[in-house]
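--- STAGE predict ---
source: upstream dedup step, 1 unique chain passed
mode: sequence only
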Amino acid sequence: MKRLLLITCLLFITGLMNNVFAATVKTVDGVTYIHNTETPKFSEPTIELKEEWRIGGEDPGFIFNSPSCIDVDEDGRILVVDILEKDIKIFSPTGKFEKKFGRKGNGPGEFMFNFPIVSLAKEKLLVIDSGIAQPYNRFNYFAYDGTFFRNEDILLGTWSPVKGKDKYEDYKITSAETRMVYDARLVDGNLWLRVHYTNYTDKERCRAIFLYDLQNKASRQVYVFSQKNPYLNEDMMQKIDDRMQTEIVWCENKNNTITVIPDLYDYRVYIYNNSGSLLNVLSRDFTLPLKSKNQYGRDLHNAQATIELYKNKKKINFNVLKNNSIIKNDYDNTRGLFYDNEERLWVLTNESFTGKRKNVNENIDFFSAFDIFDSHGEYLMRMPIKTHIRADNFKYKNGFLYFFDIDDAGFKWLVKIRVVDRIK
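--- STAGE serialize ---
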């Protein structure tokens, strides 16, 4: 009897220990800071990722040239924007191709640049084009069958053209002041917009989140991350290196907060309310890996290509740092965020570790993984995903994760994965 009681007590204590909140928590000026160690609570994931299907690759009916945005509606239909094809492709929940519409141009229902897509109520789609009516963003409204309804030219914030830059061909260098929309999410009838622009007064490159009221057609900036912009030097000498990428990754939550990583070289996640007030800062111990010899070689090649591209237009000095950390130097990010149905935060990490890539027999030194945090900010587990993810091209909806995988030949695959909890 005593032995049984002892075992029961040990099990109870073990259970308490497993449920101890391991993160360090402190509150400063009303902001809660939650810091975790690099060791998650669970040594093995309690979540399983099951691939449902993948389409694309070399299939001539489904070749994706440069997919720039994914959205998923309430019925599970997938909407894909291809920025080079200038079209919208719609797929059924089972991956069956249903419809394609759109073409290059500046007329009604035509597209020019970077058009994020949002599924609205009552079988309507909103496609935002930042390249037609600068300094405005053109909001285009369609039916699912491609029927064009109307468009509106929306100005986010204010615009003050630089003196002497009245003509469009002279305005190209200042086009960032357009508040160009690169991403859009719909929450409770409002649009959250990721916006790029430049503050020419302070010579800063800005990445911001705007909240846009669709009904009242009013916008306000909720968050901004800025960095001094070397492109604005008066002598046009670009003194840049491969760590000067200014970008933010972000996601919205159903409780109307936004979650932002402003620095791709750090592991601090900031959570704001929709008034722009900082609520929480989430972090964990984190060390960026250094470049391999092959990665350094690729960076040198990209730097030379950049110098060659601009040699007749402006002076440029592109410095590649051999011992720099691994951050992609093109337009693909290696970070990303989303919340699942259980209000857990998934953070796509850019740390590397050895593993085998799916359907490939050779070892590689980098593939993707998500760090998963609970709603209180505790680091629960690491979830490897043995594919190459374009980090700004994934979408979570109702228990499924959608993203583009890029194979060794450079072909892109649209993938649907079921997120399954092994332990409830």
